[in-house]
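This section describes the prediction task in plain terms. A model, or a person checking by hand, is given the sequence of a single protein chain and must write out its three-dimensional structure as a string of tokens. No templates, partner chains or ligands are provided. The sample shown here is typical of the held-out split.
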Amino acid sequence: MRRNKKIFRVLALAGLVFATPGLVLSAPNVSAVTPSGARNPSYFQRAEGGIALFARNQGLFSLTAISLQAPQKTCGTVTVAAASDLADAMNEIVTNFEKATGCNVRVSVGSSGNFLTQIENGAPFDLFFSADIEYPKKLERDGLAAPGSTYLYAVGKIVLWVGNDSGLDVGKGFGALRDPSVRKIAIANPLHAPYGRAAQEALRKSGMYEEVKDRLVLGENISQTAQFVESGNAQAGILALSLALAPSLKQKGRYWAIPENLYAPLEQGAVVLRGAQNPRGARLLIEYIKSPGATSLLERYGFSLPRGEKRR
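The expected answer:
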């Protein structure tokens, strides 16, 4: 009889615990019960901010709570429009973010300028990672993004890239483009791709533009530009450093870093969109981009941290 009363008291306590979201138990002897036939105790074990340990105590399964709160809730699905120079880096960032938060992320990559037009016409994205921070700023000014949410997350760089089967000496810089074997030079379309504008500006400032303009082929975005060179349809290309360092291209070619004084800084910005279906998830992802792990990853892909920004 006394044993039955003990079981009743423990069960009652268990009901109190799971009926009170956010309750934290700190007393070392407080326990709750899970049925002895339960094969999967993960529901009870998963707690925000703590670990739940199961132990057998006088024939009962008891739950000793180090910190017990309501089961963690995911933040749903975050839809992201991302500039093509982020393609490989974003894959890694998203994988790590999903593991850390339980959120799901769906990413579309493309030209920043095309995304701007789509967003202005109501495209249903939560978050926009642009290769040009002026686009997020414009969305804010036009009332299409959450006020004050624009964040300068990185500064990009451009390189002259050739495949490993090329005989060009990229160490000569733009001078290598004078070689008669270079029939086509790929750059992103400067009308809507920030990396294309940077490529065009660098060619002009170096004095090479007039010599090569008739051999330029334009990619819809910087990823397509890289495909032109990788496939051999162009003999050289001006690419984002982040793509040259990505696993998909790193072992397939070599590059020359274009001097940064030949083009305006490629300041890249992210912004939460006004029509976001998941603004909480979008803000969580922007905060994650500011974390030491994410900034280190961006640096590994050749991005610079914004001036004045420090890792948290």
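For orientation: Confidence is low (pLDDT under 50) at residues 1-72.
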